[in-house]
Amino acid sequence: MARTTGSDGEKTEAAVREAAVSLIARLGYQAMSMRQLAAEVGVQAAALYRYFPTKEDLLFTLMREHMEGLLKAWGAARPASADPVIRLAAYVENHIAFHIERRHATHVSNMELRSLSHERLTQILKMRTAYEKELRTILRDGLEAGAFEIDDTGLTAMALIQMMTGVIVWFRPGERLSLAEVTASYLSMTMRLVGATISHSTARPSGRAGNAVAL
Amino acid sequence: MARTTGSDGEKTEAAVREAAVSLIARLGYQAMSMRQLAAEVGVQAAALYRYFPTKEDLLFTLMREHMEGLLKAWGAARPASADPVIRLAAYVENHIAFHIERRHATHVSNMELRSLSHERLTQILKMRTAYEKELRTILRDGLEAGAFEIDDTGLTAMALIQMMTGVIVWFRPGERLSLAEVTASYLSMTMRLVGATISHSTARPSGRAGNAVAL
DNA sequence: GCACTAATAAAACGAACGTTCAATTAATTC
DNA sequence: GAATTAATTGAACGTTCGTTTTATTAGTGC
């Protein structure tokens, strides 16, 4: 046999990406074999090499696109307001929504950094640092404006990101808590953690921020 | 050649454990080969099988002992006081100190769960759940006593543990912040996060708790 | 110093790995 | 409908894997 009826390059590539994210998240990059991935897609292992030259290229592509998506999502969600409380609320909401929607891809991006070559690791970390810097800027602005009470901006940013990203470890949609409930709770925990005082801004596109502070 | 001069079973086994924790933390369990581990110890691969019947047995032993150590450390650090603020402060201090001291082992225990067989995974998760339950109990007691303001006890416990454990990702001893500074910051963030009111207890063995609340 | 045990080396096992290559067939173009 | 291109198979390559077996040497007890 050779080319199969109905075979389509674009569809196969998409199926490979999807199956790879799922398998790597579940088994780990090293534990997933190319034959296993091919079987999941319904194809022979050799066919994978039409789309990704090596196994590591596949991993890198998945991670890069995940990080690009995260930065793009934040770019779209970033509020126009200068109020640090509103900006922080938007950051938390975007972060949680994005990561819960892509649990598997997040797992891959967080756990498989060590499987990348040095230069590719650097590329991914650059994107990650840029994303974290956005949060540090919000915290610093809030601190300078007297809206937050924070010991150390960098440490607080890491603690918040760690706390928020951790949601993918235990959260399962359709269980005890809804996404909205979880987001509301994380918002109020975040606002208390940074010692936010109540925001006096009139425009509040993110209605939960006020609530969070009040709690 | 065979037995080498100065060879000692106990010393070799200890060297194997130490090298394995370090290698698995750095490379991942699947990526570390038994030959690589043996080379690190300065021995042939076959010699490892005198101490651990399989590679997975080695991993499981490391993880089980890590979790046992964590539970034992908390058992020793657990304060006699009934004050939830004091108990929470002790939990945070113990958690951070234990995990920073054993960064590599913590990495292994958190990242390699998927490499365990089903029944061994269950064993480890049972210990982990018991440890997390201690925190949930403290939070619930504090909530009922009116000392904390918390949306959801379970969710808050997970968020706190995620935040605290995350310290091993970025903290390096001897850099910008000292262990004491990091611990103090995490304590104040924790107390604010749970909405702790000032503890009125007279006995305060963990002096930082009061400070944390005050911040 | 002789028997015995502990600790290791050396070599080999079959299986699985990532990857390559040539052959083959489906779809597309003209 | 012939020529061309796209997509895939099946077989094979050399390497490495976890593990086992056997032999050999260092230390220990008497």
List keywords for this structure.
homodimer; 215 residues; mainly alpha; Arc Repressor Mutant, subunit A; Tetracycline Repressor, domain 2; DNA-binding
Question: Summed up, what is this model?
Answer:
Two copies of one chain form a homodimer. With 215 residues, chain A is mostly helical.
**Termini distance of chain A?**
65 Å
- Average per-residue pLDDT of chain A, rounded, comes to 91
For the sheet with most strands of chain A, the description reads: none
Measured as a percent range, the helix fraction of chain A is 55-70%
Which class best fits the helix and strand makeup of chain A? mainly alpha
CATH class assignment of the largest domain in chain A: Mainly Alpha
Most extensive interface: pair and counts?
A: A-B, 38 and 38 residues
**Rg of chain A, Å, rounded:** 20 Å
Fourth-level CATH superfamily of the largest domain in chain A: Tetracycline Repressor, domain 2
Helix and strand pattern of chain A: HHHHHHHHHHH
Query: Into which percentage range does the β-strand content of chain A fall?
Result: under 5%
Shape of chain A: elongated
Q: Total number of β-strand segments of chain A?
A: 0
From the coordinates shown, what is the CATH architecture of the largest domain in chain A? Orthogonal Bundle
List unreliable stretches of 5+ residues of chain A.
200-215
Give the number of domains of chain A: 2
Helix count of chain A equals 11
Here the CATH topology of the largest domain in chain A equals Tetracycline Repressor, domain 2
Oligomerization state: homodimer
